[in-house]
Amino acid sequence: MKPGSDKIEAIRANIYPGAHWAINDWEQFPWHHDGKGKPDSDVAHSSQAFCISVWGALCHPDASELRRATARLLKTVPGDVFEERPLLTLEFADRTLLNERPGTPTNIDALLALPDLVIAVESKLTESYGTCSQPGSGHCSGRYEPGSDLKTRTDAPCRLEIQDGTRTPRRYWEVMRRLCRPDTLPVGIDCPFAGPGYQVMRTITTAAELARTRNEDWRAVFALPAHRHPDSIQTVEQMRNLLTADNAKKVAVLDYQLLANQLTDIDPDLARYMQQRLAAA
Fold it and tell me: 217: part of which helix (H) or strand (E)?
């Protein structure tokens, strides 16, 4: 359902003015929807509106000081890299990267492209990370091993690696094996991606595979208010622990509350906006 003019104005009012430049077409933009299919990015606790506000402001041409403050918190991104303005893509998706046809491809909330570097941002405000649908639908046992495919009874350790009707084999495990330590993904374990690690893994693999196709480096940033999401932070750490030492350094958590505090003296208006939304979440 496309939003009407009144809804568009409500969404605009909910997004920090310094980030409005990041939306080229307000009517055609892929706004998030509620359970009834209605756009809901006008509510105070909208994760999408918050993400656009923060990262749109940080990627503004005149926001180099904001980016330096962000880099100080991230540490995984050198501050001098952020001196240059990133090319920002909101709601990035590319089915070809992980062979996600058909169905819903991995969606990156904010993709920042810099010379020789891509940064994938997964942004949360109130919600948790999404889980794999296969165990919940009774199609998978939740284990990574032959016999876990309860739908088509193949011997594949993960049924997402095989063709199922029109659904193509996903490349999640292929890419993760390249990124992880050799001993972390043996056959015969509880699947580390069955729960909320699924969305974290998809963000990491999308960033890494996109960077590989461009012959660039990558980072995956999981931005959230840390005090609300201790379990989500633990999930990110569990995924980092699977990766090689070099790749683990490319994954970072960004605490929105700490960022808002950092920005108080740099951009009081943005800091105030963030504090208000964080308090309402």
Answer: strand 217-224
